[in-house]
Amino acid sequence: MDTATAFELADTDAIGLGALAATGELSATELLEAAIIRLDAGRELNTVITDLFDYGRARAEALDASGVLRSGDSGPLAGVPFLIKDIGASLAGTPEAMGSRALRTHVAQHTAWIVERYLEAGLVLFGKTNTPEWANHCTTEPSLFGATGNPWGLDITPGGSSGGSAAAVAAGIVPAASGGDATGSIRVPAACCGLVGLKPRRARTSLAPGAGHILEGLFNEHALTRTVRDSAALLDAVTGAGVGDPYSAPPPSAAYLDIIANPPAPQRIMVSTSSPFPGPATDPAVVAAVERTAAALAELGHHVEPGAPTIDPDAVADAIAVLHNVSNVGLLSLARDHLGREPREDEFEPSSWVMIQEGLQTSGAAYADAITAMHAQTRRFAGQMLDHDVLLVPTLLTPPSPYGLLDQPRGTTRAFFDVEFATTGWTVLANVTGWAAISLPLGVTADGLPIGVQLMAPDEAVLLALAAQLETAIPWADRRPLRWTRQSTVHLDQGEVP
């Protein structure tokens, strides 16, 4: 693989790369080596914290030797290089620090069900992406591995907790990478990096074999992509239940790739530009992006009207704090088992330590009350959406944030989330309700930075179909950051916008 071709391939999405492999124009090995060239050229962004090149090369060589890529039944993603997030996407026998100093030498003991499905789809895994400790933050700047750079500008966060994956996709290293989302951790980095970020509906994918659910159902996994069709194809690959799952989502009516091939029936869309939580007003550039999207949807034949379901913001924030506190006690337990001793405070991020200490003091009654409150707010939210099919809102209430804002301890976990929700707004409501939600790169600031617009609905099918319509109506394919993966990379100065 020559260097020039490797960089040219950065503009091709996952399905496009899969087609090159299926026709024999390029082998899986050649596609992988091209991705490694781009990764090495973009090392300054610090997207990948564990190289799995030997693993990837062995897998690519096996695919090439088997003839499966050209068999006609290998699927649209076979042979495509892919990166997995260093939490939630375990690969047995590989390092898995989860952004934590306490787990710096931890090795995954099993392969996650979702990773097995990636492998069955023919994806070629070759690295693990940076994430904040225990996925606690909507930014990616762990002290263990250092901050991941945003390809759009070195002074703004790529978001989190799937920031390493998002930055790798935005920079053109790979066309897609895995992510997880508990309060917005796929959609926030999608907004910060100008990508498509879908959080599936609750239980669309399995968390086997490690868990039945995480954070009482707040958490789900999917991917960051540049195109809607790649998001649909990846969801097709991982949809379904694992053996023994406590519950699962109803199966889709058809493959998601087939669903996006046709426009959806007219939808009843409620649109809001304000936040459900107290805080500053939504940035005018974000408001403009949402309003432009609403106008485009109306032109496409959908019924769009202003409105917003209301929730009790204190009840939601209190419940989220309690659930995260108890979850972080799990981090302490995992670290204790791994180290064979009691972990020290300096082996955790300061904000994680606050959560751990509060979690150790949380009673069973308080935890049960948090679950009850979350379910009550879900019913309140859903009841107000009965006359509408889709909610259109900002992904972030502001343009991409500077570093050092969304990972700092605030004295209490509740105060920590108050700061987060003043930036993220609606994202957590999709996790609380279990609704599907997708962030699309439909706006830009005056300085050219990406703005994400979010669609929420009970199911992914309508969201992907609407997203495909918007991808045509308000194209974003040519809106790319400075290429960090050129042979002679021209780097940004701090604060400079490409």
Automatic annotation (TrEMBL):
Q: Which positions fall inside the Amidase domain?
A: 30-458
Q: Known catalysed reaction(s)?
A: a monocarboxylic acid amide + H2O = a monocarboxylate + NH4(+)
EC code: 3.5.1.4
Known InterPro entries for this protein? Answer: Amidase (IPR000120), Amidase_dom (IPR023631), AS_sf (IPR036928)
Task: Fetch the Pfam families from UniProt.
Answer: Amidase
Q: Which GO terms describe its molecular function?
A: amidase activity
Family classification: Belongs to the amidase family.
* Protein name in UniProt: amidase
User: What is the protein's species of origin?
Assistant: Mycolicibacterium obuense
